[in-house]
Write a sequence for this structure.
């Protein structure tokens, strides 16, 4: 299997930024899906570097077997 792209390490965070189980699922041949709030994907108050890091993260998730991501907005929550 091709290796997923490396993600830059930040102090105090796992090397890939992923929960350990995600790599285990990938190594076993599983595809998986997840969900997140839309503001974890695009934010107008963040700079280009933040968005580039997010794009790398999404590509890494796909390389590790992400099949589908469900996006949502929590009602009553101001995420700005």
């Amino acid at each position: 299997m091709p290796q997923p792209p490396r993600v830059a390490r930040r102090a105090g965070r796992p090397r890939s930024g992923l929960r350990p189980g995600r790599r285990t699922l990938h190594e076993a041949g599983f595809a998986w899906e997840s969900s997140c709030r839309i503001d974890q994907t695009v934010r107008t108050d963040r700079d280009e570097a933040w968005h580039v890091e997010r794009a790398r993260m999404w590509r890494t998730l796909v390389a590790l077997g992400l099949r589908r991501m469900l996006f949502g907005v929590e009602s009553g929550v101001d995420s700005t």
Summary: The radius of gyration is 14 Å. The beta strands are 32-37, 66-72.
